[in-house]
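Worked example

This section walks through a single chain of length 642. The input is the sequence exactly as stored; nothing has been trimmed or padded.
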Amino acid sequence: MYWKLLSALALVGAVVPVASSAGKEDPVAAAVPTAADFGAIASLRAPILSPDGVLIAARGVKDGKPVVRVTEASLEPTAVRTFPIPNKHQVNWLRWAGPRLLLVSLGTTTNLFGEEMRMTRVALMDFTTGKISLVGPRDQGLMGDDVIHVDREGKFVLLSTQPSIYEYPAVYRVDLATGKSNRIVRAQDHVWSWFADNNGVVRAGIGASGKKWWLLYRAAADQDFQRIKRTVDDDGTEVDKFIPLDGSDKGFAIAAGESGRFGLYRYDFTADRLGEQLYENPAVDIDDFDLSPDGAVVGVYYTDDKPEVAWFDPELKALQGRIDRALPGKVNRVVSTSRDKQRLLVWSSSSDDPGAYYFYDRKVRRMAPFAVPYEGLHGKRLATMEPVRYKARDGLEIRGYLTLPPGKGDKNLPLVVMPHGGPFARDVWGYDAWVQYLASKGYAVLQPNFRGSTGFGSGFVEKGYGAWGRGMQDDIDDGVKWLTGRGTADPKRVCIMGASFGGYAAMWAAVRNPELYRCAISFAGISDVASMLRFDRKSFSAPRYARDWQSRVQGDKDFGLDQISPIKMVDKLTVPILIAHGEDDDNVPLYQSRRLHEALGKAGRRHEYVVYEGEGHGFANPINATDFLTRVGKFLDTHNPG
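Given that input, the structure is written out below as tokens.
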């Protein structure tokens, strides 16, 4: 199928201007944004610099369709080329494979054995020749975008993939000049994750069966993999990520130590043993880390109440200080750099500022705005988001975020609780269009990081195992009771809204606790848990914490998933519900909402249902995004007036 799609990726595109800086206006005099303002789609997302710092590539949207945007890196506005993506596909990520070679992960849905399944592939854009090609062997299964190494010179990539869902992945070396794929590591039973060193040699693999895991290792490419005798207990250290160093049996690992929080350690592969702890945050997991070309740790990234970075490199630490002084009161992150670290892209934003990207040229010591993804919100009034803590019914501390409507005080407010997707994910502090829209209409918005949310240590995640529709839902409900108990929220005016797993939580709240919620809103929600797990079980995994995916959802093996599936409890769904879904969603398939709509119709239950043509697991067309928010506003006006 994918080999027939290449003609749709022709390198011809329109020229569009680069946005200018938005700035901030007096919040008292600022206008209230409209649904169309909040429905606007970011002009670009996740920009990355080419290794030589000459080009910038980003995901974007044009005429409601996903595109790849490429422009020259400059302190002055410059032209942007847009490259279309095949119909009914989404762009998952971009990664440079050389100064003029760009890897693009594409996702879509396919039908397998009568059920819709998610499929991914990697395409290569060559900006020198104008050619497009697919990366990897023709005989691939559903997941074909697991790139585990990119050669620094852009000569080859290593791709971990398997021909079917019934086989384990092998590793292929793909020559980017010829497109030829050679298998360099054969598949091994129970091994899903392979790791390469910084020279492109596959050195390690993690095998897992049930709750046990083990390490396969070799010192060089001409050696066989050996299963290393474990030096830690089977239920002990959890390792998320290995980085072997070329020419050494040592490297680095992100692992959970005695505290249960993931930190950065040195690692001895021959002994399968953690060494010196280089960094651990006292409250949260680290997200990732950077290495210099010579294998030194540059910095560690983590998210506490807000995104943070701990720089090991004194020069970069000083640079961060200069950026923060230039852009005070914001979260400022270096999101991409050239290989020599002389050219950088900086993202600067806050909860009441949708943000801007800046291009920073260290050689001339100048920084200029590169793009403002939401130009239409310039000068409009937005609400501030504050980190909060509350206790669940069993005493567990739950972190979250509370946004209050501007100018409405902090008492007796109508409330919308908005659980995040995942569920093994977390909410973070920052601009959120849905939250801001609700606040603009006078609603307080609570975003709870319920048990099972990632980032707060393995112990917190483990409390979410077997807690779908149970302990997770308790935490959400307890957040409502906490806000009503302290007088912030009106207990008679509470609604719940979410997307993906958050949409599931909204549906399930309507079934489980109609006494708490006047209405529910689901976008791309899951109504049939067992069916969703068959569609894409990886969607509900948090691999760094454990690999026994089923226990995270089901818990007790005798527990029937129908007991926590809204579609199986239609007779109990008496609360008004708004159900929306993208027709081309390759993450949560449309049937999850369509079948619930049909069941509700047969049961005569009041609800609203809308399908957005051409949309995936989110909105690419601002007309559709605006329509959805407008529907949400009218639905709330009717069932939970502000």
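What to look for: The two ends are 49 Å apart (CA to CA).
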